[in-house]
Amino acid sequence: MRVVILDSAAEMARVAGKESLERCGLLANRHGKRLGRVVLGLATGGTPVGLYRQWIEHFRAGEISFQSVTTFNLDEYVGLSSSDPRSYHAYMQEHLFDHIDIARENTHLPDGCAEDLNEAAASYEWQIEEAGGIDYQILGIGSDGHIGFNEIGSSLASRTRVKTLTRQTRSDNARYFDSMDQVPTMAITMGIGTIMSARSILLIASGESKSRAIRDAIEGPVTSMVPASVLQLHPDVTIMIDEEASRLLAHCDYYRESEANRVRLKSVSLGVTQGREFP
Ligand code: GLP
Hints:
By secondary structure, the chain is an alpha/beta fold. It has two domains: 2-248, Rossmann fold; 253-279. It is built from nine helices and ten strands. α7 (211-219) links the parallel β9 and β10 (237-242). α1 (9-23) packs across α2. The chain binds 2-amino-2-deoxy-6-O-phosphono-alpha-D-glucopyranose (GLP). 2-amino-2-deoxy-6-O-phosphono-alpha-D-glucopyranose is lined by residues 43-47, 74-75, 140-142, 148-149, 169, 173.
């Protein structure tokens, strides 16, 4: 696991925004590489807003295009239609899709209003597979360590399905609704197995309210009681956090030193071998 600690949430958004575009080949990196079609897994919540803003800025500067991009969002509330302003469909339009040149038919979110939710979940999995799987998955993290809406106790092998939301998650997300009663009790979410099938994963988190979840995910045991801890088993995960979210980590010095060495090694190998930037 690569852990990157940045000074502030704004810096995290800037670095995560640029690096994610480079990793997906959308923004030419120092090798000048651009890839063909890319499939992105996208997250919602307050944390990715700054990252999406960076993407929009790079797009407005004429540096990137999303015409070769297909997206799959992690989750959607059960019972909220895509036109409901509190839905994740609406969130994605507002914070990203309305501002870039992505083709609407290439954007996907689970259908939280489907008559048959199980069938909608199965079809979502199938669509991801049809698209060739997710190349790069963006994740936030819940204050209890959930990813997507995979609540505590989720099977670490789960695929897209309906999950009941915990009181903690509903209360954390109540700020987007008029009252706690209005927060849906269920969601349709990619499973942990679905997320783990992504080729590369970037998890971002900021603020003290995430410090416990971040410590448990990075330095605790792998357990379904902290769904994000499963990321320890993935071969290509980067966790970018701000100082506040890193507060409870025991090994910050080591993570900083590793990152400094990584930058140093990268510049050496670039000079000598022109090797892959992210082995
Ligand atoms: C919800 C979403 C998650 C997100 C989490 C944290 O539960 N389903 O994908 O990571 O909220 O959101 P925030 O970034 O607002 O703290």
